[in-house]
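# nightly structure sweep
# worker-07 picked up a monomer target from the shared queue
# config: single-sequence mode, recycle default, output format = structure tokens
# input follows
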Amino acid sequence: MEFDIPAGKLADALDRFGEQSGLQVAYDQATVEGKRVVRVTGPMPTAEALNHLLANSGLSWKYVNSKTVILNAPATDTASTRPVPPPESPHAATASKKHGDVVVLNDITVVESLPPTATQPSNFALGFSKPLLETPRSVSSIRSDQMTSQGIATIEDILRVVPGTFTTTRYDLQGGINVRSVASDVYFRGMKRLTMQGHARTDLNAMDSIEIVEGPPSPIYGMGNMGGYTNLMPKSARALSGAYLTDLKGSGAVTIGSYQKTQFEAGVGAPYSIGGRQGGYYIFALLEDSGDFVEQVRVRQKLLQASSSLNNFVGPFRMETGMQYQNSVTSGSYMNRVTQSLINGGRYVQGMPLAQLDSNGDGRIGFLEMQQNSPVKGTITPGNQPLLQNYPWPTDATGKPYQVGRFPVIAGIPQTMMDYLNAHPEADPTGLLRAQGVGGPLPTSGQLPIGFVLDPRTTGYTRVDWHRNGAFERMQDADLWLCYFDLVDDADPNFTMKNQIFLDNLGQTKDSYLPYGEFLDMHAIEDKFIVTRRLPAELLPAWLRVNAIGSLDYRLTRAAILSSGDDFDYRQDVMGANSGTLVPNTSFWNWVTNPSYDTGAPATINRKSAYDQFGVGGMLDVDVLQNTNLLLGGRWDGSTVDSVNYQRFNQSTGTLGNAGGTIPEDRANGHDSGTSWSISLSQRLPYGVRPYMTLAHSSNVLEDINNIVSVPIVRAPGGYIGGSKLKEAGIKASLFGGNLFVSSAVYQQTRADISPPSDPTGSAYRTSSLARGWETQFKWVPLSRFDISGYALFQSSKYLQNSQEVVELNARQLGFKDVVDPASGRVIYPAEAFLYGGRTQMNIPAALLAQFAKRTGDPEKQFGLNLSYSFASGFGIHAGSNFLSSAFLDRTQTTVLPRSIVVNAGVSWDADRWHFKLNGYNLNNELYFRARSTDASDNMATVLPGRRIDFSAKVDF
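# output follows
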């Protein structure tokens, strides 16, 4: 359709729009008062013309029927401060006044489909409020209704609807979100949070909507990760609409389901007035006490959100303030002793450790007990420990390293095992193990400690029960709280100001039997000021429109960690007689429960860092000749850091109180800076098609998973601020009158600050990798009550530098041999049993590094499809399915996780104030897996839940 709407008052422009489009636009006069628009001309879809008119006005529109749309006055609008009467019924609206020939509606309930996806504005992706069709980046938005209908409640669930969000786990805890194979930054109402990966569960039940942007952040947001960033909008944000209610409104819900799922949630909001200023508040609370697919794990959560909004708090500024507190108590889990045989056929190698390490009878193994009862040969070193041994990579006679899977097989049993069995012949009643003679591959130290081998009396093969826990982290208790205070002036859409103050805090205690124990304390405070300014049309030629945005912010991050021990995940036999409970010979003390050197385990890590960031950035949104858009921006960030490793116990020496018994304090401080920029070009073509290209570079602080910048990274030659870059080209289209939205893109993203031959910042959380891929997604609404969405992703990634890679193999891969009964041919002692009592590690030879550059764990092909239909009676149905291709579990590519097809479906019924929902997940009971967050080991994997059903009931009041 051809439009020609001159610049001027928004009310006049809407009248002209109605005349040219044939649509009635319903609105309250107060919501458009004082607002102006720029000129809109040229051929374009009707929805696109309306989006141009409402750009930066703070207003949104909803589709009612083929003749009528209505405007909403969301919280960002301060022009109207009068309470609006509610509708007389859920399917009617109350008329309040007329503007021209249009009936103006105060409160609207949408009775048909939602607006087409292409017209939905993205207020977060790049800083400007732009429809998804016009945003030159891959962006996915998950609305509140979509989260509710499809049961999107955990990080794992996002994969069902958003491509590239396959999230590996850290001991089965999904806190952060992976985007394009790397961990993404998480924002809360547009402000960056602390790292959430593996510290606590992120509960999406408390969120109203989610927006996921792929690639580095906009220059106005600050430094960030290359994979992407996610913005979470909490349910408490509904306080912004409280000012438009007449009285208290709220809801309560209960959810029960499989694995003892029990969850309660409630929310309430209302208007208030202070000194003639209109405001609103909203409070949301969630309580959960549930089981888990893994028998030993429980999930307990308490969450409270509260927020308030008050118009004209200071002059024209609106106040938005609130808080969130969450207590998350759970425990981590992995299936241990993973082999290809276990993955393919469920055959588990069982057996408890042979030597008793808990010699004092206090129920757990202490540091000294490990040293005394599983002694090492020679000097204790980081690679020569009672339950951790370095192995050399075997080579042939010419010095050429063998390929993984072709290591020489060496018959026999370790010398320490032979000595033990000779002293305890009852442990080898048939004598078959001693008959093998001394042999087997030797670690670098020359001797395998006795703590590694399993007891022949309990060792063999058995069928696995996937519900058993393979890694006994007893308890992970995390307290998270945040608060914010914003001042917003957006009465004039052509000139807005916003100042945001944000505090984020996390305190965590982990008590593990593995024996890792941890106390983590993280804090961040940030103040960000953003101003937008649309250049007046009278100052520009008719063919040019320019919108500008600038930001100034300061952020301070402090983090400290105190921990001890290691993770001896394979020591526990989860299928043995004591699989439901731990036994003393597989339980360890850590510094949290017993920091004593004599009987427990002193802290071995004690570090902290504090770094700040001061940045200034800006962007321009330029329209040329209506059809061409140029989006460009830049940013500079400066930072100072102070990092310290405090004096602590030196477990490498195994002594205390002498010259080598403690590690001295080590401190480093410094200054670094970085620049970020982005440039995007898009072109509007006929038939609602819009191709685009984006180039971006983003600086990022090379912190670890605990938001700590370590001393070695502070001292790294290239500094502690790295960089990443993105190349992306795509095409978006709004077809069939806006009912079909399609987005497709190819991309390449990489760390840009790596200098060969090695990466001194390899321990940083920002992965040194390069990823390439193609993704496409669509949303189609062929009927007003029926929608279909789907996506496809093809992706591969590799490490840029892997010069110091350490991997972990099992005993069979290292060259140990099965012990077989010659009479029956039955395996009586599997090869893997020689090492499951401890852990091994080995360095990949330089000659083989190129073969192991591939990043593993993520399926390289991912597909998703979802359908939903709602009936006029209030009944609704939805169904969806995901396909994930096979993936290697570990860096050496020796274990393959199979491909999977998972089917989900559900039904809902809305009857006046009551809402009922029944969701089924993995209805085909597919057995599928995820790799851990590091790909150095092939001995552990997360088993995803089987078939489960959830039922929820909600009532509004």
